[in-house]
UniProtKB/TrEMBL annotation:
GO function terms (MF aspect): transferase activity
Protein name: Dolichyl-diphosphooligosaccharide protein glycosyltransferase
Entry keywords, A to Z: Transferase
Length: 20
């Protein structure tokens, strides 16, 4: 789940630029 990584701020899903 990219949502979980959004809080960490790591590049987990290239489909989610918000992760950066």
């Amino acid at each position: 789940n990219p949502i979980l990584f959004r809080g960490v701020g790591m590049v987990a899903d290239p489909d989610n630029p918000l992760v950066l």
